[in-house]
Sequence to fold (165 residues):
Amino acid sequence: MAKAKTIDDLFYDTLKDIYYAERKILKTLPKMARGAHSPDLKAAFEKHRLETEGQVGRLQDVFEVIGKRAVGKTCDAIEGIVAEGEEILEEYGGTPAVDAGLIAAAQAVEHYEITRYGTLKRWAQLLGHKEAVALLDATLKEESQTDKDLTVLADAGVNEMAKAM
Ligand code: FE
Ligand code: FE
Ligand code: FE
Fold:
């Protein structure tokens, strides 16, 4: 019989998943910034790239406080979400619709991260990893804020501009 897996294993595996995802996102954000037309959207991607560097560091701290090695595990979800974003760049790059498409792609990324960090924070609470709870919550707040900022940019005219141009 296979060794019974525990919620500790699940917590560690899910940390590896988001660690892989964050590093993938870190490589992708500069491409999104380059492809964006609106200077505000470019700036938002650049700001979040810097935040993402910090988030990778925070995850390394989480691995450390639980006494486990920081390793990634392929996240098929982020591979797919990022591939869709790259499709937007290929198919809509340089067109009036590119910014609306990039905002939509970026919000899919943020929502994936929000679900992962929400779950990880809850499991860290359950397992009594207090320091990890605080670290995961700090990133969860940044992801939620980024999602809100993208909605504000979309409402502030990026989508309207796409229609008008
Ligand atoms: Fe992130
Ligand atoms: Fe995943
Ligand atoms: Fe993010």
